[in-house]
Design a protein that fits this description.
Its main location: membrane. InterPro entries: TM2 (IPR007829), TM2D1-3-like (IPR050932). Keywords: Glycoprotein, Membrane, Signal, Transmembrane, Transmembrane helix. The protein has a three-stranded antiparallel sheet, with no helix packed on it. The termini are far apart. It is elongated. The chain has two domains: about 60 residues, no CATH class; about 90 residues, no CATH class. It has six helices and nine strands, in the order αββββββαααααβββ. The chain is of the alpha/beta class.
Length: about 200
């Protein structure tokens, strides 16, 4: 403890730094605050944090991927937020995935390139009638083989059961965008306004 003369000297000397410590106490701690209820189906980025997605090494898709091309990942809300419907900080969020039954994209493409004239690619993908037709006509005189190489490479032709190819999770996937008379097209100009 400094003497009173040293304290007085520090008060009078303008070059001696004086350190003051202020302690601010909040009467209501974070644990006592009432949580804010939010709709967990319409959250914004930063309001939640999701756990690492568990990717199956055989299908290269999330393990919980279903036939509706949705997988559910466990997420946690930031502190102070809870879901309206469950009253919990934890919830499951649906993410897009590609349901697959084990048909490899690389295998289908290689079969189409090297054995496409015999219809091996179509047999592999589950189209036996087209495979037999290509086999009997030598791949429609190699023209059908060329068309199938392009269709498989662009992922337009897929497995007959409606599933997707097994492609690496961060691999070369194509998303085919289609529209019909019920699709609304929204044009956005440079000013940020949108029109239909």
């Amino acid at each position: 403890m400094p003497s009173s003369s040293a304290t007085r000297k520090a008060d009078n000397d303008p070059l001696t730094p004086v350190v003051t410590k202020h302690v601010v106490t909040n009467e209501s701690s974070a644990a006592e605050r009432t949580p804010y209820h939010v709709d967990c189906n319409g959250l914004r980025l930063g309001q939640y944090r999701c756990h690492k997605l568990d990717v199956d090494p055989e299908t290269q898709q999330p393990r919980t991927c279903n036939k509706k091309n949705k997988a559910y990942v466990n997420c946690t809300l930031t502190s102070g937020l809870v879901c309206e419907d469950t009253g919990s900080e934890n919830f499951s969020m649906p993410v897009d995935c590609r349901h697959t039954n084990g048909y490899s994209y690389e295998t289908a493409l290689l079969l189409s390139i090297f054995l496409g004239m015999f219809g091996a690619d179509r047999f592999y993908l589950g189209y036996p009638a087209l495979g037999l037709l290509k086999f009997c006509t030598l791949g429609f005189l190699f023209l059908g083989q060329l068309v199938d190489i392009i269709l498989i490479a662009l992922q337009i032709v897929g497995p007959a059961d409606g599933s997707h190819y097994v492609i690496k999770y961060f691999g070369p996937k194509l998303d085919i965008v289609s529209f019909n008379e019920n699709t609304d097209i929204i044009y956005e100009n440079n000013c940020g306004s949108t029109t239909k």
